[in-house]
Amino acid sequence: MEVFSLLAQGFAIALQPINILLAFVGVFLGTLVGMLPGIGPINGIAILIPVTFALGLPPESSLILFAGIYYGSQYGNSISTILLNVPGTASAVVTAIDGYAMTKKGRAGPALAMSAIASFFGGTVSVIALMLFAPLLSQWAIRFGPAEYFALMVFAFSTLSSLAGANLAKALISTAFGLMLATVGLDPNSAVARYTFGELKLFDGMDFVVVTIGFFAISEVIQILEESSKGQQVKSALGRVMISSREFIKSLWTMVRGSVIGFFIGVLPGAGGTIASFVSYTTEKRLVDRQNSFGRGDIRGVAAPESANNASANGAMIPLLTLGVPGSGTTAVMLGALLGMNITPGPLLIANNPQIFWGLVASMYIGNLMLLLLNLPLVGLFVRILSVPRWFLLPAVAAISFIAVYAVNNSPFDLLLMTGFGLVGYAMRKTGFPLAPVILGLVLGPLMEKNLRRALSLSGGDWTVLFSSPLAIGIWILALASLFLPTLVARYTVIRRVDSEEDGEID
Amino acid sequence: MSQRLSDRIAGVLLLIFASWYGLTARSFNVNFIADPVGPKAFPFILAVFMGLSSLYLIFKPDEGPTWPPFSVWLRIILVVISFVAYAYMLVPLGFILATTLELASLSLIFRGPPLRSLMAALLFSLVMYALFAFGLELGLPTGRIFSFLGV
User: Fold this and answer.
1) Nearest chain B residue (CA) to A423
2) Which of A47, A247, B24, B69 is deepest in the core (most CB within 10 A)?
3) Domain count, chain B
4) Residue A194: beta bridge partners?
5) Do B28 and B48 share a structural domain?
6) How much is the ipTM here?
7) How many CB atoms are located within 10 Å of the residue B131 CB?
8) Residue B64 falls within a domain, yes or no?
């Protein structure tokens, strides 16, 4: 089969010493940023982008590193969730229900082991799916013209906005704000300076690394000032970090279903790990929870969300790699990095740059194996890192952010911009404006405007061209539906289910 | 109604911002016609989009957040001042000195023990300099004040 020879070529790339090292560094840092509350994969990747540029890494090596951080963070996020009931990232919130209940029963070790094994399972199943589905989807997407692309980006924004926060109007404002930031600088078509205030440093536009680090890392540092300054001490004994074969067999089908659910939800723009883990958990609860043990430390309650959120991270790579339209903040940052290396992901990426796609896929098999080995015997080491006091951790995050921001242009001006965006980000966090749509808008804005203007050039200025092909109309309908359906569905089903869970079963 | 004030204020500010953004776009004139849309259309669409959303926010605001007490605001202001000072100090003082000072101040603002904060700040700055300047080949400023040493 052709897949195997392509995969073999991928392994030839992924097994180069530099790429093995980068995969390891990626998954190790990913585990760290996933585990530590307040630092997520978006920060981790944004901070490393200037480093990969300075080192002149080829795109496939950079992507191996970034993807490692992304899926590695889905392993790490369960550590603080299970031990401290503090989710490392939002996609581990559901894991807290049964994971922390197990810790309170003195079964933290098996919970951590289950989480690592389920993450490995979800990661591996979804890499296989990525490998099989992505080439098919990109062959289909070759027929997309500028009008279809424009509609597709609207679809990405509408799903991300409708799922990103409680208030749709705020999410749409965040999106518009990100797109507005993208218009700063010289217009590539006409060389008119837009929103630069005559400042030469803004002629190249807002660098998305500066904006991302300001919005995510700096605003987080500011927000944590509101909380206590102590590190978190893990008090419970870990016990043996292993599960019995009986527990594995009991959880096997849960992991299979979790992986499939997670993968397909991950492919959808906007949905991501949080929704994947939630849907997987509630599905399992309905299907297999005969003794009503979910919520009281059932090991399948850990297996379900952890397999799903890992699978979703790999699923989210599909729209990025095959369409060039990311559906989440993290994949948007990866797109920004690829654009900076003059790689424009899209339907032709797999055909024209097979080393990028197949090298990445092969490295994901390797990286997931590394994560399993890192997380089973070495989990004690990570637990010790959790107790680093905040007075050291947060200034350290700030210092690393400064280095990355300064390195973008060797310009102190960017540090001021970063501070400004940090304050805006803090205000947005407080008032419930989601941050991910801003980054997606900033990265996709230029592509969106380019496709809009190209479509209208081809039609001679006739705006109906945007709705002229059946494919484009289909995407527009999906975009509209995604904007309003989740709000309605959430109002009538999901929230009620969460309420009923919180009423009775936790503890 | 008062606890919904945060969103109303945000809505008004955003409406003003969107109006300014849209009005500014009127001045983006090109002498030749490169494409039928030009550099104005996309910003206009965005301005209308944000304007309508912020109107919605003004009329249907959420419950406001709990804003932190004054003592926290004071620390936030201190942190921001330290960031701005760092931006101006980095090139003159050089990475190691500026970062040590900045880290030590931040640690103190985060209520770290004074002596250990200073030690950790110095050590971390040195390690970061070694890692990023030598290991990862990023150009970090050595400091203008040390220029007499010939570096």
Assistant:
1) B80
2) A47
3) 2
4) A185
5) yes
6) 0.90
7) 14
8) no
